[in-house]
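step=predict obj=Glutamate--cysteine ligase n=75
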Amino acid sequence: MADNAHMPLGRADLVTSLERGIKPKERWRIGSEHEKFVFDRKSHAPIPYEGERGIGAILERLQHFAGRRNMKART
């Protein structure tokens, strides 16, 4: 079996990949995404994800205000 891991993608590969994500019009929904920048008030350093004052803890505390939680995979 040939190793295709380093083969460049062609137009057909890209089109096929995008077509897999197409939803029928009746399943369309309106959504929004908001970027928020959180930093420490004293040091102005970025807040880490982990820890009791981290982003994860903030999201946990805010969860009861939101309808549902939608987390993207962390990379």
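step=describe
Residues 3 and 65 are 49 Å apart (CA to CA).
step=end
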